[in-house]
Write the structure tokens for this entry.
Amino acid sequence: MLVLNCSTKLLILEKVLKTHFPESLKVYGAVMNINRGNPFQMEVVLDSWPDFRAVITRRQKEAETDNLDHYTNAYAMFYKDVRAYRRLLEEHDVINWDQVFQIQGLQSELCDISTAVANSKRLDVKLTSFKAVLLSPVSTQPDTSLLRCSPPRLTYLSVADADLLNRTWSRGGNEQCLRYIANLLSCFPSACVRDEKGNPVSWCFTDQFATGCHMYTLPGHRKKGYSRLVALTVARKMQARGFPSQGNVLDDNVASISLLKSIHAHFLPCRFHRLILTPAAFSGQVRL
């Protein structure tokens, strides 16, 4: 195991990962954030350098952690050799197996390998797979003509909005998610439409892997074009900073899939896989 701390080597890694799109997108997004101030306190672990065969991004060991917070305790994976990935996964001190955490990536073998290693350690595994998408370049400012008066107005989310986002997110509704969302909002780009009282009615934000998440519009404000507006605004923000604009969507989320098609998003040939792993000691204590 090698923790890559050298800024020059991290920039080289970023360039190398770009040559392995789309499978490397999650790790690439995390590495880009590390190379641009590292606001989420992440680090990179590899099997070797410079000729690595497996790479994992994780939260820095020095960062504050909550053993129940699988949102923050998240690892992104990319490998050129699945056997190297398994060896890295099994190596001492690469993964904290004593907390609830998640593994994510865009390569199908990671599901079987990660599950096999987790089962050997008696962890419960919950797997969810999504369509992976990449938005086309947004060259012009999104059309805001639908905001005929002010308010509503297009702006960005703040930490003060975290409670609303936590309550409306299908993955949320708990203390860990609330804290996680607040951290994301303080670190990464977002967009929202606010009503006359200044409350968000439609929004999208981005995570530590530079992925758009929780695109949502309150029921009373749907079918007004707000979701399209915030999605394109976030995409343009990410692309202006040099990031790819990536996202994930469940197969049965018909409304979001229709929206993504309308803005010419590319549905990637690979799928996004997220595994949430729970030690027996925390069974029944975590909302997955």
